[in-house]
């Protein structure tokens, strides 16, 4: 009986891991949407070597608690060990679940991209994260973050006042829903042959196992 229990332990662990590391189900969406270009295009600039064999597509919301935790913890190790070494690249796409403030913050990152500072502004939002639906994202705070990363404020404010990127963010959000994204953070990790979906702020070990599998 003891031997049976010992045999069961790795099976249970495997089942639990499988809950986090599942091949992307074709039944969730039209598989024709899941092309490399569709997944990468219209998102953030690529972080890392554009020729890296593995891509992480992160779907996030700037007010999301677990997105914040991923960026403060897991991403640092992934960036140091995998992105900076050319093994993995990262693309961020917006999935603003927390309402108009999240939408406005997402618009602001693309206004920053106009000045070549998408990732600096993106990081500044998470550095100053103030919770979900607490009112910390305002026009004033977004302008302060722009000032911190040395953006031209006149250009930045005009972009945001004109809602230059509102349609872009909404289109990204809709595309995410079309392919079955329903929570933040969610990740599609792929290598051109298969896609693995990770839902939620999973431990670093889950990402490491995914990289090994790909």
TrEMBL record:
This is Disulfide bond formation protein DsbA. It holds the Pfam family Thioredoxin_4. Residues 43-197 form the Thioredoxin-like fold domain. GO terms for molecular function: oxidoreductase activity. The lineage of its organism: Archaea, Nitrososphaerota, Nitrososphaeria, Nitrosopumilales, Nitrosopumilaceae. Belongs to the thioredoxin family. DsbA subfamily. The keyword Transcription regulation does not apply. The chain crosses the membrane at residues 6-24. InterPro entries: Thioredoxin-like_fold (IPR012336), Thioredoxin-like_sf (IPR036249). It comes from the Archaea. Gene3D superfamilies: Glutaredoxin. Keywords: Disulfide bond, Membrane, Oxidoreductase, Redox-active center, Signal, Transmembrane, Transmembrane helix.
């Amino acid at each position: 009986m003891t031997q049976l229990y010992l045999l069961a332990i790795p099976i249970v662990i495997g089942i639990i891991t499988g809950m986090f590391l599942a091949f992307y189900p074709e039944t969730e969406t039209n598989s024709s949407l899941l092309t490399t270009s569709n997944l990468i295009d219209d998102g953030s600039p690529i972080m890392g070597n554009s020729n890296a064999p593995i891509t992480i597509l992160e779907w996030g919301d700037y007010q999301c608690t677990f997105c914040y935790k991923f960026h403060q913890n897991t991403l640092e190790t992934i960036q140091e060990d995998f992105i900076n070494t050319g093994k993995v690249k990262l693309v961020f796409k917006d999935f603003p679940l927390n309402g108009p403030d999240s939408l406005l913050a997402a618009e602001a990152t693309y206004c920053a991209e106009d000045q070549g500072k998408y990732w600096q502004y993106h990081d500044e939002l998470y550095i100053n994260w103030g919770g979900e639906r607490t009112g910390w994202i305002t026009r004033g705070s977004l302008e302060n973050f722009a000032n911190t990363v040395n953006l031209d404020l006149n250009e930045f404010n005009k972009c945001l006042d004109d809602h230059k990127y509102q349609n872009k963010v909404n289109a990204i959000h809709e595309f995410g829903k079309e392919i079955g994204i329903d929570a933040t953070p969610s990740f599609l990790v792929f290598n051109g042959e298969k896609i693995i979906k990770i839902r939620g702020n999973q431990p670093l070990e889950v990402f490491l196992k995914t990289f090994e599998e790909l």
